[in-house]
Amino acid sequence: MSTGRTALVTGANRGLGRAVAAALHARGLRVVLAGRDRSSVEQAAAELGAGASGCVLDVTDSTSVLAARALIGPVDVLVNNAGVLLDGGGDPLTVDLDLVRDTLAVNVLGSWRVSQAFVPDMVTRGWGRVVIVSSGTGSFSNGLFTGAPGYSVSKTALNGLTTMLAAQTENTGVLVNAVNPGPTRTRMMPRAERSPEEAGELIADAATLPDDGPSGRFLRGTQVLPW
């Protein structure tokens, strides 16, 4: 049964993003699968069927984001999933800072840029759900993972962005949360035990919270995790 709501999922042409899109589609949302490659997002959307569509969106390019906004229009749910892991096996003292810069450009500024494009409409309309896909590698309670320093710092920054967006949208009907789905079997972590489908359900849970749900929290399903 359709909910009448529309969700935008970035980085949705494969892996975790595609699994999130599938989970939301199964819950009755219209889903826009966004990614840089037109053919892959359109194919992924076609595989989901009616109520799913693909859209070209490069989170690092303001022109691309604004063009997507003009094409899609307002959305009810935004899942900032697009991300990269470029510095695995590095360490904070020797990592190539160009890789760190490129990681931050996608993971942090990309999510921020897309949020700036789509969240104001949610505030105006008085309802919205924003989910930022984070990681335990960027959690102070776990200890930041030094084996991928740029990636870890990017996730810490995303947690900070989550709290700021939640504070800015407090009492507007918009809920903003980060989700730590745990190690998930994707191209980034091909040997992880959790499937993209399992992790996708955890993210979909945060994207479909009830009106009295939490905001500004670090979630995994019904668990509220320490930052």
Automatic annotation (TrEMBL):
Keywords: Oxidoreductase. One of its GO terms (cellular component) is membrane. It comes from Actinoalloteichus fjordicus. Residues 5-184 form the Ketoreductase domain. It comes from the Bacteria. The keyword Transmembrane helix does not apply. This is Ketoreductase domain-containing protein. InterPro entries: KR_dom, NAD(P)-bd_dom_sf, SDR_fam. Coiled coil: none annotated. It holds the Pfam family adh_short. Belongs to the short-chain dehydrogenases/reductases (SDR) family. GO terms for molecular function: oxidoreductase activity.
